[in-house]
Each structure stands twice: as structure tokens, then as C-alpha cells.
Write a structure and sequence with these properties.
With 96 residues, the chain is mainly alpha-helical. Helices cover 52% and strands 5% of the residues. It contains 5 helices and 2 strands, in the order E-H-H-H-E-H-H. Strands 1-2 form a two-stranded antiparallel ribbon. The longest helix is centred in the N-terminal third of the chain and has 18 residues, at 13-30. The chain is globular, with a radius of gyration of 12 Å. It starts with a strand and ends in a 17-residue tail after the last helix.
Amino acid sequence: MPGRRRKVDSPHLEAAATLARNVRIVRGERGWSQQKLAERAGVAYGTVRAIETRAVIDPGVFTVQAIAQVLDVTIADLLRRHVTTEPSPGHSAAPR
């Protein structure tokens, strides 16, 4: 599985928790399952599940970019404490 496995003492735990929560929120607002998100982003279902459950705390940047792109948000949006699902500048509001 890509990314670094979860470690209790990792400095990335807080960011991983924020990413997990925000991917879950935005995916849910789109009405997508983890499987549908994975298919649209071109990543494995297990990768989406691992990100959302924080089983992987340091996913690859290209994986996160692919997920952000199909969710129509930026990587920065996914790492914010309080996610907004309004389209980011440069992103369309059209569903994919």
C-alpha cells in the first residue's frame, strides 16, 4: 500500500486526521462511495479507505492530487481544519 503506515509518534498524525475527515466530508456531499471516488481518481479502493481511516498517514502527493481533482477541491482545501466544499478558484462547480 502506498504511503507511510501509521505510527503513533508521527508528526503527520494531525494532518492525516484532517485529510481523512475532509475527504470523507466532501465525498459524502458528492454522494459518492469510497469505491466511486477511487474509480474516478484512478486509485485503488484500499488507498481511499486507508486515507479515510488514517491507516496511511503520509499518502503520496499524486494520490492526494488525483483525489482532490475529482472532488473539485485543492489539496490545500483537503488539509484545512474546516473544509469548504465551494469550488476553489480555478475549479469548476460542474459535477464530474
